[in-house]
Amino acid sequence: MTIAAILKHKGHEVISVGPTTNVAEISHVLTNRRIGAVLVLDAEDQLLGIVSERDIVHSLAANGSRTLDMTAGQLMTRVVRTVTPRTTVLEAMTTMTAGRIRHLPVVEHGHLMGMISIGDVVKARIMQQDHEVDSLRAYVAGAA
Predict the structure, then answer these.
(1) Which terminus of the chain is more exposed, N or C, with fewer CB under 10 A?
(2) pLDDT tier at 78 (50, 70, 90 boundaries)?
């Protein structure tokens, strides 16, 4: 199964903010949308970075309440790992586990196609395993 299959089911919507959006506003977006990260895009929709709940918490520990006045451009993770629609679920899971990250933007030929979370990947992997188990059961039942 590929990331394209996840996006086909999930959709391609990406929640993003601009680099000047302050962290207080980002926190509202995360809470209202019930998501764990937002992408930071420039005016041409080019990926600049990502701001996650974890980034905010780490900044709160280091900077206290000053964090709320910081901008996405100041707080964002600038080196963003990405996947393509052709990336397999297992490859994405490996990337997420190795990098200790929970969100991966999906990019193809420089264009943002969507974003997946660790929850999306785990759900897809479970569905894939369920399908394999059902196929094996049908094979064994047919062979008996």
Answers:
(1) C
(2) very high
